[in-house]
Design goal:
By secondary structure, the chain is an alpha+beta fold. It contains 13 helices and 33 strands.
Length: about 850
C-alpha cells in the first residue's frame, strides 16, 4: 500500500517537473509577450510616406532596462493615434519583432467655402483648425463645421447648416470644401417683462441692449439673439432698479424661446421688484484707532432722505477707500452695511472702516493686447507692483480701461502670489478696431444740406493717441479741421489737444456777409472727478469778412449824384425811388449809402478794418451727472466757460457763458427738462467790441425764431437789416418728453412739448463812423452836407439806425425727437407768443445728421 503511494507520488512529481517548463513558456507568451526581450531598434515600421521612421519609433519609450513591455507598446500606440497624422495604426508581434503598420492621413491641398455671403472667407479661415498643406483629421473637420455654424449663430442665423466635403486627389491629397447654407437672420421677435410695476416695459426696453427686430434692424445688430447679451441685460435691469431704491430686486430669469413659425426668439425677463427704499440714516464706524470714520463723511454720495442708490453707494465706498489710502491707511477696507426697516421702507447705512489683510501686488500681467502698448494699459492703474492691494483702485482701473473703448472686453482677476501676502493681477483683454472712416450727412434750416468726410483713430500707433482729419462741405458752410489728442501729457493724467481749422460761412437767408476763419487752438483737459472736468485753452485765429459788391457800393458818386445799382434798380422799391427822383438826383442829396440795399454799417466797418487777429485764453468747467449722455433721463449737466481776448491780437473782451440742463423722470415715461442759459460780454480797455464778437441768438435761445432772428437789428428800411447781436442774454425753457407708446421702442421716437423764454440785448458795437474818425471808406464815399441833411443823420452812411428791441421773447411748441439709424434728428414747430417788432420768425426748424 505504501509502495503504491510512492509510485503514484513519483509519477506525479515527474509529471509536475515535466509540465513546469511548458506552462512557464505558455505564460510568458500570453502575458509578457515577445516584446519583453525587444528594444526600440527592433521595431519595424510599415506604410509611412511622409512621417519619418525614427519619429514613429520615438513614441515607444522603453523602461530603465532598455526593454519594451506591453505597457510601453500601448502608450506608443495611443500617442501615435493622438497625433492626428494617421487614419489607422496597427501593431503586430510576430517572429520576435514588433511591426507598426500605419495609414497616413492625406494632406489638405486647399480649403474652400461655398455658399457664404454674410461672412467672408478670410474670417472663416481664421476660425477653423484645418489648414491648407496640413494633415486631414476627420474629427477636426467635424469640429470646424461646428465652429462655422457657431459663428453664424452668434451673428443671429440659427438656421445655418454646414456640410464638409472631402474630395480625393492624387498622391494622397484631398480638397476640403465646406458647403454652407446660411439661412435667414434669426432675430428677437419680442421682448417682454413680467412682474414690473414701478417701471413700464417701454422704459425697461431702453435700459437693456437687446432690441426687437424691425424694418431698420439691418443698420444695427442688437436685434440678433445673443445669450451673452441677454445675461448682461439681466444685470443692467437689476442695477437700474438698485439705482432707484429697490434694494430687494431680483431678475429671477431671462427666458428665451425659439418660435419656428416666426423664425425668431421670444425673450421674457421675470422680475421681482420688492419695495422702494429711502435712506433712513448714514453713519461711519472705524475699527482703526487713529482713523476717525467721520473724517471720510464728505466723500459719501448718500444722503439721508434720498432714494437708496446702490451705484452711489459703490462710488462712496470707492472714494472713501481711496481717501483712506491717501492718508496712509493703505490696507483700510470700507464695507457698507444696510439694515432695512420693512415698515418704514428705509435703509440705515453704516460705512464700516476696518484694517484689511496686508496684501501686496506681486505682479500685474497684461494679456491679449496685440496692438496696444503695455504702458497704455498700465497707466490706467493708480497702483503698481509692490504697492498695497486695494480693490477699489483695481475696480477703478478696470472701469477706465473699458472707457478707453479700445477693447471688446476687459476683465481683471487675481491669483495667489509666491507667498500668502502676495497677489497677482491678471488683466485679460480682447482688442477691437479703433479706426473710423465716416461719411456724414445732414440738413438744417440754418446751414442747409451739409456733408462731412472724416478719418479718425482712437488708438493711434497703439499708443492711445487720438487723431482726426475731417472735411466739411455744404451749401452755406465749408471747412477743414485737424485734431490731435495726447491723453497723458508727460505721463500725467492730463490731456493735451491740438486743433487746427479753416471755416467758411457763406451769405444766406440770415446773414448778408461771408466770413473766412483760419485758426489754431491748443487745450489741456483735467478730470477732477468722474463727474467734474476742466479744460484750459488758448485760441488764435484770423477772421476776414467780405460782401458782394452790390451790398457795399453806396451808389453815390463824388458829385453826390445818386446812381442805383442794377440789383436795386430792378426791385419794386428801387423802381419807386427812381420814379420819385426822376431817375437821377441832380440836387446831390441822394438816398445816401443805404439807398439800394447796403449791408449794415458795422458789417462794412469790419470790411474797412481788413482781416482781424484774435488771441484769447479761456477755460471750461463741466459738471455731469447724466445717466446717459446720448439719451438722458435723469441728472444734471452744467457747462461754464469764459474767454479773455487780448493776449496780443486786434481785439479785447471778456466773454462768459453758462448752460445748465436738468433732467428728471416724472410719471410713467415722461421726462422733464429744465434748461437755463445766460451770457455776458464785457469790454476790456478802450477797444470797442466788434459786432461779430457779440452774442447772436435765435432758435437756440427761443424756438420759433430764425437764426440771428432776435435782438438788436439795423432797421434801415433800404438796408439788409443785419442782426447786430448783444453783450447780454438769458434763456429759460421747460420741456416734457415722452415716447410714443403706440410705436415700437426700437424706432427711437419721442414727442416733446415746451415753453421757451429769452432775451438778448445791450448792443455795444459801432453805431457811426464819426466816432472812429473813419470817413472815407472804400465803397462808401460820404455825401457832402448841402443843408439837406446832417452828415451824421440816421439813414446816411455816417449813422446807424437800429432797434434795441428790449423785449422778452416767449414761445410754445411741439417737437419730434428721433434717435434714428441715420443719427439724431429733431423737428420743432414753435409759435412765438411775444416778439420784437423787427424780429424774424421761423416757426419750423429741422436739424440732424449721421455717420455711416
Amino acid at each position: 500500500m505504501k509502495l503504491g503511494m510512492r509510485v503514484r507520488g513519483g509519477l506525479l512529481a515527474a509529471l509536475i517537473m515535466w509540465a513546469t517548463p511548458f506552462a512557464t513558456t505558455l505564460a510568458v507568451g500570453l502575458v509578457s509577450s515577445p516584446a519583453s526581450a525587444q528594444t526600440v531598434d527592433s521595431i519595424q515600421v510599415e506604410g509611412n510616406r511622409r512621417v519619418e521612421t525614427a519619429t514613429i519609433r520615438s513614441y515607444f519609450k522603453p523602461g530603465p532596462n532598455g526593454k519594451l513591455d506591453q505597457g510601453h507598446i500601448d502608450d506608443g500606440l495611443k500617442g501615435l493615434i493622438e497625433t492626428g497624422l494617421f487614419q489607422d495604426v496597427h501593431i503586430n508581434q510576430a517572429g520576435g519583432r514588433i511591426v507598426v503598420s500605419v495609414i497616413e492621413n492625406p494632406v489638405i491641398g486647399r480649403v474652400a467655402f461655398e455658399g457664404n455671403k454674410k461672412v467672408k472667407d478670410e474670417q472663416l479661415s481664421g476660425e477653423i483648425q484645418s489648414k491648407a498643406r496640413g494633415t486631414l483629421s476627420r474629427p477636426m473637420v467635424q469640429s470646424d463645421a461646428q465652429r462655422i455654424a457657431d459663428i453664424y449663430r452668434h451673428a443671429g442665423r440659427y438656421d445655418v447648416s454646414v456640410v464638409p466635403e472631402i474630395i480625393e486627389q492624387p498622391n494622397n491629397r484631398v480638397d476640403l470644401v465646406f458647403t454652407i447654407t446660411e439661412g435667414n437672420k434669426t432675430g428677437i421677435n419680442s421682448i417682454e417683462f413680467v412682474g414690473n410695476v414701478a417701471y413700464s416695459s417701454y422704459r425697461l426696453r431702453d435700459v437693456i441692449k437687446t432690441r426687437e427686430s424691425n424694418l431698420l434692424s439691418f443698420l444695427g445688430g442688437n436685434d440678433v439673439y445673443d445669450p451673452d447679451r441677454i445675461e448682461a441685460d439681466r444685470d443692467l435691469i437689476r442695477r437700474y432698479y438698485l439705482k432707484h431704491g429697490f434694494a430687494d430686486v431680483q431678475v429671477v430669469a431671462a427666458l428665451t424661446e425659439y418660435d419656428p413659425q416666426k423664425k425668431g426668439f421670444l425673450v421674457t425677463f421675470k422680475i421681482e421688484e420688492g419695495q422702494q427704499y429711502h435712506v433712513g440714516s448714514v453713519n461711519f464706524e472705524s475699527s482703526i484707532a487713529s482713523l476717525d470714520g467721520n473724517a471720510l463723511a464728505r466723500f459719501s454720495r448718500v444722503g439721508v432722505g434720498s432714494l437708496y442708490n446702490a451705484e452711489a453707494l459703490e462710488k462712496s465706498v470707492e472714494e472713501m477707500q481711496i481717501e483712506a489710502s491717501r492718508r496712509g491707511y493703505a490696507f483700510a477696507v470700507v464695507k457698507p452695511r444696510g439694515d432695512r426697516n420693512f415698515e418704514t421702507h428705509t435703509v440705515s447705512i453704516v460705512f464700516a472702516i476696518d484694517e484689511g489683510p496686508r496684501t501686496y501686488i506681486e505682479r500685474i500681467n497684461v494679456r491679449g493686447n496685440t496692438r496696444t502698448r503695455d504702458y497704455v494699459i498700465r497707466r490706467e492703474f493708480d497702483i503698481s507692483e509692490g504697492d498695497a492691494y486695494n480693490r477699489a483702485l483695481v475696480d477703478r482701473a478696470e472701469r477706465r480701461l473699458k472707457n478707453l473703448d479700445f477693447f471688446k472686453s476687459v476683465k481683471i482677476t487675481t491669483e495667489p502670489g509666491s507667498s500668502s501676502d502676495r497677489v497677482i493681477l491678471n488683466v485679460e483683454l480682447e482688442e477691437k478696431s479703433t479706426g473710423d472712416f465716416s461719411v456724414s450727412g445732414g440738413y438744417s434750416t440754418t446751414d442747409g444740406p451739409l456733408a462731412e468726410v472724416s478719418v479718425s483713430e482712437r488708438n493711434l500707433l497703439g499708443r492711445g493717441l487720438f487723431g482726426k482729419v475731417s472735411v466739411t462741405y455744404g451749401e452755406f458752410a465749408r471747412g477743414v479741421s485737424v485734431s490731435f489728442v495726447e491723453p497723458y501729457l508727460l505721463d500725467y493724467r492730463v490731456a493735451l489737444g491740438l486743433d487746427a481749422y479753416y471755416r467758411e460761412q457763406l451769405p444766406n437767408t440770415y446773414i448778408s456777409y461771408e466770413t473766412r476763419t483760419i485758426g489754431f487752438s491748443p487745450r489741456i483737459g483735467l478730470q477732477l472727478r468722474e463727474d467734474m472736468s476742466v479744460q484750459l485753452r488758448y485760441s488764435i485765429y484770423q477772421q476776414e469778412v467780405s460782401l458782394p459788391s452790390y451790398l457795399d457800393n453806396c451808389n453815390n458818386t463824388t458829385n453826390g449824384i445818386f446812381n442805383p445799382s442794377p440789383a436795386f434798380a430792378n426791385t419794386t422799391a428801387g423802381q419807386q425811388l427812381i420814379q420819385s427822383l426822376g431817375a437821377v438826383d441832380p440836387t446831390g442829396t441822394g438816398l445816401w449809402c443805404y439807398s439800394d440795399g447796403e449791408a449794415s454799417l458795422p458789417v462794412r466797418k469790419e470790411l474797412a478794418g481788413g482781416s482781424t487777429l484774435t488771441s484769447a485764453v479761456g477755460y471750461t468747467f463741466d459738471y455731469n451727472t447724466l445717466d446717459n449722455n446720448k439719451n438722458p433721463t435723469d441728472g444734471l449737466l452744467i457747462d461754464w466757460k469764459q474767454d479773455f481776448a487780448g493776449v496780443g491780437g486786434d481785439v479785447t473782451y471778456l466773454k462768459s457763458a453758462i448752460d445748465a440742463k436738468y433732467y428728471t423722470p416724472l410719471v410713467a415715461d415722461v421726462i422733464a427738462l429744465v434748461h437755463l442759459q445766460g451770457g455776458l460780454m464785457t469790454q476790456v480797455g478802450n477797444n470797442q467790441i466788434r459786432m461779430l464778437d457779440q452774442f447772436q441768438e435765435g432758435p437756440n435761445l427761443v424756438r420759433g425764431f430764425a437764426p440771428n432772428g432776435i435782438g438788436p437789428r439795423d432797421i434801415n428800411p433800404y438796408g439788409t437789416q443785419d442782426a447786430l447781436g448783444g453783450t447780454q442774454y438769458w434763456g429759460a425753457s421747460l420741456e416734457f418728453q415722452t415716447p410714443f407708446w403706440f410705436l415700437p421702442k426700437e424706432l427711437g421716437m419721442k414727442g416733446a412739448v415746451y415753453a421757451d423764454a429769452g432775451w438778448l440785448g445791450d448792443y455795444k458795437g459801432p453805431t457811426d463812423w464819426a466816432t472812429t474818425g473813419e470817413v472815407n471808406l472804400p465803397g462808401c464815399i460820404p455825401p457832402t452836407n448841402n443843408g439837406m441833411a446832417s452828415p451824421a443823420a440816421p439813414g446816411t452812411c455816417l449813422g446807424l439806425q437800429y432797434a434795441s428791441q428790449n423785449v422778452v421773447r416767449t414761445s410754445v411748441g411741439v417737437g419730434l425727437i428721433w434717435q434714428s439709424p441715420f443719427g439724431p434728428l429733431r423737428f420743432d414747430y414753435a409759435i412765438p407768443l411775444t416778439k420784437g417788432k423787427y424780429d424774424i420768425v421761423q416757426e419750423f426748424k429741422f436739424g440732424g445728421g449721421t455717420t455711416f
